[in-house]
Amino acid sequence: MSNSAQRFFRIQLVRSAIGLPARTRATLHALGLKKRMATVFQPVSQSSAGLIMKVKELVTVEEVEQRLTKQQIHLERKPDPGYYIEKTAAQERAELSR
Length: 98
Known about the structure:
By secondary structure, this protein is α+β, with helices and mostly antiparallel strands.
């Protein structure tokens, strides 16, 4: 299988591992999840699917075409600013002076 056709599981830890058995915490660590709301990408395989099934109540999973970089994940989670700048003050003065 070529690298461009490889698919990935996008796994995000949504529930905390505090108070869980050591085996469950070890499974999360094997998936690469250390903190809540962390996102990791694992290649689609039977072993990855088996680990995910052990902690399915704690994570969200979706299958994606490619990995995202940390910066892409950050920009994806960044909220809308809530406002848009139509004109700056300098543009407004330039229009009024014409």
